[in-house]
Amino acid sequence: MDTNGEIESADEEFHSQSGRKYRPVVAHDRAVLEMSSLDPESSSTSANAQSSLRKIKVSLPENMHSEERERSSLSPDGPQRESKLELFGFDSLVNILGLKSMTGEQVPAPSSPRDGEDVAITLGRPKAIDLKLGTMMGVFVPCLQNILGIIYYIRFSWIVGMAGIGESLVLVSFCGLCTFLTAISLSAIATNGAMKGGGPYYLIGRALGPEVGVSIGLCFFLGNAVAGSLYVLGAVETFLDAVPSAGIFRETVTRVNGTDSLGPIPSPSLHDLQIYGIVVTIILCFIVFGGVRMINRVAPAFLIPVLFSLFCIFVGIVFAKKDHPTAGITGLSLSTFKDNWSSKYQNTNNAGIPDPDGAIYWNFNALVGLFFPAVTGIMAGSNRSASLKDTQRSIPVGTLAATLTTSALYLVSVLLFGALATREKLLTDRLLTATVAWPFPAIIYIGIILSTLGAALQSLTGAPRLLAAIANDDILPVLNYFKVADGSEPHIATLFTAFICICCVVIGNLDLITPTITMFFLLCYAGVNLSCFLLDLLDAPSWRPRWKFHHWSLSLLGASLCMVIMFLISWSFTIVSLALASLIYYYVSIKGKAGDWGDGFKSAYFQLALRSLRSLGASQVHPKNWYPIPLIFCRPWGKLPENVPCHPKLADFANCMKKKGRGMSIFVSILDGDYHECAEDAKTACKQLSTYIDYKRCEGVAEIVVAPNMSAGFRGIIQTMGLGNLKPNIVVMRYPEIWRRENLTEIPATFVGIINDCIVANKAVVIVKGLDEWPNEYQRQYGTIDLYWIVRDGGLMLLLSQLLLTKESFESCKIQVFCIAEEDSDAEELKADVKKFLYDLRMQAEVIVVTMKSWDTQVEGGGGGGGAQQDESAEAFTGAQRRIAAYLGEMKERAEREGAPLMADGKAVVVNEMQVEKFLYTTLKLNSTILRNLLPLRG
Q1: pLDDT tens, position by position, 212-259
Q2: Where does residue 898 rank: exposed (0-12), middle (13-18), buried (19+ CB within 10 A)?
Q3: Is 291 left (phi over 0), alpha (psi -120 to 50) or beta?
Q4: Which residue, among 307, 280, 281, has the nearest Cα to 225 in the 3D structure?
Q5: How many CB atoms lie within 10 A of CB 593?
Q6: Residues with Cβ < 8 Å from 313, sequence gap 6 or more?
Q7: What whole-number distance in Å separates Cα of residue 836 and Cα of residue 834?
Q8: Alpha helices for 64-155 (secondary structure H)
Q9: Is 871 helix (H, G, I), strand (E, B) or coil?
Q10: Which of 524, 588, 602, 613 counts the highest number of beta carbons within 10 A?
Q11: In the prediction, which pLDDT does 791 show?
């Protein structure tokens, strides 16, 4: 398709009613060849990219037969010609209507071609179709494999012995409810549009903003990296328990409660755990470097030993009394069940063996931290969203099924273990599952080792990809080292993850590592719940998840449970994890390059602004709640440099009109011309002005209006700018000193017209004269702020002078209020009234009263006297009288010729020449009085 809308072919053509030439599509048509080279299975995940409006270059492979190349060419120019394929502007229509944002689609990643760029597609053989996974193998199995880990095999029976059956049921239900509610929130968010790389980071970042997404995403990365060390230590400890002779150092021997009733209990040496753990981590790191495809092929095989070992455990429990007459194992006994119902918290050593002198005391809160990693792993399915056939069906069904299955398994296991053995056996036999397993314990050892190594391999595989996804979003410059191209392996991120894992392995204590993992995972789960809560509560048009079983109250309950569990485990760990996330958030907000992802916070701000605007109503704002909303008229009377859209001192003055910088200013400028011709120039100018406002640290917005001339543009601005009670109430502009220097006679008329428009619109006007001398924020001022209170302005001048004192550059100044009184009036009484008025307004100012002759005295004195008493303003007054008289005469003559009444601005005018002369005299007299008598007072 050409850009003119014609489709050309080498065969016959036909004509449409509009006169265009069309030809039928044939088998060797370039569009057909191009579509055949696309992956048909990727249509669901890349439909958005396919539908975007792009120019597509089609190139032919060099080894293609010449006849095929000739047939594939659609133009006489041969294969060198570029074919531009446009989808009839449909994508532009979608963008205009905002339908893409409503469907929850996101902006493509920077690594993918952007709209308008050329995309090269080589014709030839179709791409190999990647294998897509279903709900069972894509979500349920990975989640099950990650949830059923080391904790169940070597710690679960110990937890039952320490907490008792009753509190163990509460513990499992409590932790299971938290992950179940998180799975519901995850299902809702995951079914609200396509998911990309990054798993929970992608979901949280697009819902709560890039700052929150990066902070929680990095904590989740640390949790996964530390979890890898947990699995490695679990596998090594199981191996050393199964093969004690493999230990290099002497084993630690502990006696239960200071007695030898059950004999010494061996536990692996800490140094053996460290050495073997480091070696295993390095081996796993080399496997990860082999690529994710090899890991995915081996991953299903890790689940078979897990399922078989579970089968052997339950069979062994049923026949335990008969096949295992070991001391402490009673089989399924009701008396044992009753004895183990209550809890028995006590001290243990670092290996978890009961010891009266042990340094660790266990309670319910500590057991929550120990057990919670056994219910994590629900994010395994969302991390594989790119490999799923139907993401929006597989993730909810598979995740919730795995969560419910494992929770039921844990609840049943509590009852079985509690009735199986005595409390002493539960607390001392760390591998009770292997002891009772049928037909021999080696099966459990193999199952534990393989499952933990598989989980560690998944952690070392998923954590680097999460870090690479954060780095690829180009938010934090410090993470640029971990960026990877599409389809490449994150080798640097893998090495960094392995380094963290080895550091945790050096600690060597499984029970000290698990609370750390718990905090990071709980922080991530809380972020997922808060994301769903915010999106559910706002209920934006784009929030339409396919998973319907969700509610904001459930998400809020899930987030609350996450926070409660964090504080139950350890308030110190909680404070540290929240502080770490807050520091990352603060760093991203300052140093990051986060863009607008359409997150929920922006939607919340928008809805809050709408509700606040509606609550303000349209009635007049009470004086107590009045805030200055200045409209800064940026159009200069003269020229400014091209990169300076507003006078710098005008922006500084606008900042001085707001208390401590809080408030909103509207910076407007007018672009002369036709709107259709200057629309793009207006957008560019608006961006430039907005950038300049940010540079000057002004809290405000920029607006550019295109109008035929300045007067018409300002009249439109003053009528339409703002919403409801958030309309600007003060107009700030620069006094046009330039018109006298360059004799620009049209400027005064425009200037006066703008002031008249402000008066008609009931706006206050602040005109800044001598703007070039206005101090910046770094120039400290001393002396006085002189306020000439001449006419009643509602206290605006007093307020502005008071606002100046809140600025650092003016805080050392004092306010002087000058009041004008007639010679025959009581000046002291006026001064007392003004002081009382200022006291009621809680303003500190010095009051100075200056007297002057009134107009009546001037008339009676015959022009104000003569000789030495002649006022210097008399000449100016006489000249102004002549100009006004000439102007009024022209207006009257024009009205007589047209046979119409005297009109001005469309209204009938009645001129009171006496009032005009009185106003003129008072103004000039006041000006001369101020210049002659008040300036010496400032010295």
Answers
A1: 888 888 888 888 888 888 888 888 887 887 788 877 876 665 554 444
A2: exposed
A3: left
A4: 281
A5: 11
A6: 433, 436, 437, 444
A7: 5
A8: 66-72, 90-97, 99-102, 135, 141-147, 150-154
A9: coil
A10: 524
A11: 65
- Inter-residue contact 852 to 929 (CB < 8 Å): yes
Q: Which of 741, 770, 725, 734 is nearest to 755 (CA)?
A: 734
Helix H or strand E segment including 581: helix 571-591
Amino acid at 86: E
Q: Six-digit token pair at 312?
A: 């052997």
Q: Helix or strand or coil: residue 667?
A: strand
For 899, the 3-state DSSP assignment is coil
Q: What phi and psi, each to the nearest 5 degrees, are found at residue 847?
A: -105, 130
DSSP type of residue 27: T
Closest CA relative to residue 142, chosen from 462, 546, 412, 549: 462
Strands (E), 479-534: none
> Cα 448 from chain centroid?
41
Task: Please give the backbone phi and psi of residue 818, each rounded to the nearest 5 degrees, phi first.
Answer: -100, 125
> Residue 646 carries which DSSP code?
S
Of 656, 786, 632, the residue nearest 721 (C-alpha)? 632
pLDDT digits (tens, 9 = 90+) for 275-290: 988 999 998 888 788 7
- The string of DSSP letters for 862-904 reads TTT--GGG--TTHHHHHHHHHHHHHHHHHHHHHHHHHT---EE
Spatial CA neighbour of 436 closest among 304, 336, 312:
312
3-class DSSP state of 375? helix
DSSP label at residue 932: I
Cα–Cα dist 24/12, whole Å: 7
Cα 624 to Cα 11, 323, 581, 629, 893, distances in angstroms: 80, 85, 40, 15, 51
Q: Residue 255 — φ and ψ, nearest 5°?
A: -105, 145
Mean pLDDT of 692-703: 85
Q: Which residue, chain included where needed, has tokens 């800064």?
A: 632
DSSP string, 603-639: HHHHHHHHHHHHHH-SSPPPGGG----EEEE---SS-
Cα distance between residue 921 and residue 909, in whole Å: 22
Three-class SS of 151-183: HHHHCHHHHHHHHHHHHHHHHHHHHHHHHHHHH
Residue 300, phi-psi category: left (phi > 0), alpha (psi -120 to 50), beta (remainder)? alpha
Single-letter amino acid code for the residue at 363: N
Residue 304 in tokens:
């078979």
| DSSP label at residue 671 | E
**Inter-residue contact 132 to 389 (CB < 8 Å):** yes
Question: What is d(CA 173, CA 167) in angstroms, rounded to the nearest whole number?
Answer: 10
Torsion angle of alpha carbons 77, 83, 84, 85, nearest 10°?
A: 140
Judge contact between 264 and 548, C-beta under 8 A. no
Per residue in 411-450, pLDDT (tens digit) is 999 999 999 988 888 888 877 888 888 888 888 888 888 8
- Per-residue DSSP letters for 850-863? EEE--HHHHHHTTT
Residue reference for tokens 């993850």? 497
Residue 798 DSSP SS3: helix
Instruction: Name which of 601, 669, 606 is nearest 635 in CA terms.
Output: 669
CA angle 839, 843, 848 (to 5 degrees): 80
The angle formed by the CA atoms of residues 863, 868 and 874, to the nearest 5 degrees, is 35
Name residues whose C-beta falls within 8 Å of residue 250's C-beta, 6 or more positions apart in sequence.
269
